[in-house]
From TrEMBL:
Pfam assignment, any one: 7TM_GPCR_Srd
Keyword Membrane: yes
Species in which this protein is naturally found: Caenorhabditis angaria
Source organism, top-level taxon: Eukaryota
Listed transmembrane segments: 12-32, 53-71, 77-106, 135-156, 190-216, 237-265, 277-296
Keywords, comma-separated and alphabetical: Membrane, Transmembrane, Transmembrane helix
Protein name (record): Uncharacterized protein
Record bears the keyword Membrane: yes
Length: 322
């Protein structure tokens, strides 16, 4: 019964989050196009938020297909697949879950990287539009490396566990009330990888908060009239990136860190590991909501699209934001 309640909860959350997440991120893409055609004040940030929206859409689709949960038992870590991906061949399940890890890596890196580039733009006066592509390539390669690493790792683990696959099937069936879901299985060593990835991200989050406070004070003291973006707009951008970082850290990074610690300590948490990936279902909806709430030109587009704002009011709002 515990499994049935847990699996039902995950499936319900996945279905509830799917359509709002897709719709809100598509609206974000149209809002970015609108802002780009009407002044393009946010330039580099438009590109960052565009990548955020595209990643969120891919992330949502993949989560809905897989609906993965973690179970720890008998010195092994199981990734139970609840979605339609449970019927896929094991190699395809492995590949899709590895892509999920790659997207998870991107979600953890996007806000810190944007804040870092924002620092060099404001303090060092470096044109980040020229530096953005090389940085993006590095981030992309890191995500590809994470994807390939976990794909190869899980594949090799699957080969190692293959002779005893039936016993692992019985073990996971004891948690799934004999429901035959697809699953992947890994050794506890995966927890050390997760731990080593989570710690730098949490430390980096602390540095991001400090940097953003420093940037806000610098902008207030040294307001550059030549800049397209005013103080309040720049402050809102900083708040947006920090809040996106906070949601990522508290909904994804910290749960993974706690999970890895339990696994390293050889604690068979069983189904209690389910909340580890639960926050992932909310991330694709929260990040565009945060962006719309703090970035006025995007919000104006949203109001206009739903007929909540007339063109004259739009001009007035745009002027008050400067």
């Amino acid at each position: 019964m515990v499994w049935l309640c847990a699996s039902t909860l995950i499936q319900v959350i996945s279905i509830i989050m799917f359509f709002p997440s897709i719709i809100l991120n598509v609206l974000l893409l149209t809002a970015i196009d609108y802002e780009k055609k009407n002044g393009n004040k946010y330039e580099f940030y438009n590109t960052i938020f565009r990548f955020t929206a595209h990643t969120n859409i891919a992330y949502t689709i993949l989560l809905t297909i897989l609906q993965p949960i973690l179970i720890v038992s008998q010195s092994s870590v199981y990734v139970a697949i609840l979605g339609i991906g449970s019927s896929f061949p094991i190699l395809l399940k492995n590949f899709l879950f590895a892509i999920f890890i790659g997207l998870l890596t991107f979600k953890n890196l996007e806000s810190p990287v944007a804040l870092g580039l924002r620092y060099f733009n404001i303090i060092k006066k470096i044109d980040i539009s020229k530096k953005f592509k090389p940085v993006l390539i590095v981030v992309f390669l890191l995500c590809v490396a994470a994807t390939l690493h976990y794909f190869i790792f899980i594949y090799l683990q699957t080969q190692d566990f293959a002779p005893n696959w039936d016993s692992y099937q019985k073990s996971i069936s004891s948690y799934t009330c004999n429901i035959n879901n697809g699953f992947l299985v890994m050794d506890r060593i995966v927890a050390y990888y997760l731990f080593c990835e989570a710690i730098p991200l949490i430390i980096g989050f602390g540095f991001c908060v400090i940097i953003d406070i420093f940037l806000a004070r610098h902008i207030l003291r040294n307001n550059d009239n030549r800049s397209k973006i005013g103080y309040h707009e720049s402050k809102n951008l900083g708040i947006t990136l920090i809040l996106m970082n906070i949601t990522t850290v508290f909904l994804q990074t910290i749960p993974i860190l706690i999970f890895s610690i339990f696994v390293i300590l050889k604690t068979d948490v069983g189904l209690r590991a389910i909340p580890t990936l639960l926050g992932s279902y909310f991330m694709p909806l929260l990040s565009p909501a945060i962006i719309f709430y703090h970035i006025l030109p995007y919000r104006i587009h949203l109001y206009r699209r739903f007929g909540l704002l007339k063109s004259q009011a739009t001009v007035g709002l745009s002027q008050t934001s400067i």
